[in-house]
Amino acid sequence: MLKRIDLFMPPRSQYGVLHHFTYNLAEALERHEIKTRILEADYHNPAPFIDALIKDPPDCTLSLNGLLPDEKGNFFCDMIGIPHVSFIVDSQNLFIPLTYSPLTVIVCSDQFSCEFFRGLKSKNILFMPHGVDKNIHIDKEVDRCYDVTVLCSLIDYESNRSEWKDKYDPAICRAMDEAVEVTLSDSSTSYIQALVEAIDKQMELHYSLNPAQIDFISVMDDLEMFLKGKSRIDAIKAVKDARVDIFGAVAETAGWEKYLSGTDTNYVVHEPVPYKQALEILGQSKILLNASPWIKNGAHERVFYGLASETLVFTNENIYMKEHFENDKNIVLYQTSHMEEINRRVNEYLSDDAKREKVAKAGRELVLKEHTWDSRVEVLLEELEPVIVKLKQELAKKNEQSKSE
Question: Are both 323 and 394 inside the same structural domain?
């Protein structure tokens, strides 16, 4: 039985999201009678961090977006002999090396990411969506001064796309264009699935295209970034009448004005804010507008925290959202193939406070009942325990064989 899990604090996190999640997970684990320590390694003096693990080892360790191998390909968990749970928050494309670690358990927040890793012959894969703090508080007296709020960074997707022709074969570029169209046309096809099918089609037409020479990781990265950037701008520009307050960093190559210029006078751009402040802003917002079509069987943390803030959440429809939420009952789901509907729906809910507040309240009640970190941890522990037991047995057997040799 699992008794202790040590959590590693990420060395960095944009807006402080990963640090916030780490504390929330530790608190949820403690409430489930799992002892925890939050350990943070000092790059210049890692000895205390390592000593703490070796002298008093936990059943396993856990970190957000980690731990990748060092420059020699060695994994920390394999070297110290303690299983590690890597809860991937960012793109799965960045964490393919984790499949080479026998003691790493990969946890994904999208079922399609789980299938991606299983397709790479990785065995220890678990699904766990993001969650919210069960004790998240909202101030009923605070004025909801923001009509429509957007919390995201700008991606200069047009500039990124202009580089494809210099990086890839024309047939690959055509496949990427088709994958974008397919991904945005329905709520259930992942961009990786769309890409593979589009490349297969191009290979049937162009016999010179050698799959062994395709840098699939680079192609997937570029495709995902394009989808992120375009869907965010498309959703924002779909709101024609209401004021939209945007909080997010700019890209190195462009500012928000590149995409929101001219007659776009209803958009107000703010400096990016740390995560705790973003949660306060959610509590002051009537509507949260989210776009994450690269996730097709899971959900982004912004959705859950928006709902928990009793803010009406507009987000794109996908398999997971349709299974766990009801459109116009506790959330508003739009289709990325019909972004033009967003403006009408925004006007509908901003003009009817009672209706908006009713749906927002139902969203908060559902999230606090079924989508907290406590509910996530309960399922995780049930599925994780047999995996950790198996990994420890395999490790003990391997050590015995080494001694006998």
Answer: no
